[in-house]
Design goal:
Blueprint lengths: L20 H9 L3 H14 L3 H13 L9
Helix pairs in contact: 1-2, 2-3
Length: 71
Amino acid sequence: MQIESRPKRLYRSRDRILGGVLAGFAEYINADVTLIRVVYVLLSILSAAFPGLLVYVIFWAVTPEKPLNQD
């Protein structure tokens, strides 16, 4: 018996504060969403905030939202 597994996909999460990008990334790597958000904000502030904001907006635009029927 062979079990077929679908490849893991990165989606924007519906459990969001802004666009769901960081929550989706946390779900993708099975990490705590709060930790991912704090680390991302700290890295953005330490890099003059602009690159972090630009990366977030790009990922918000190109990452699809998680389908309703998927858990």
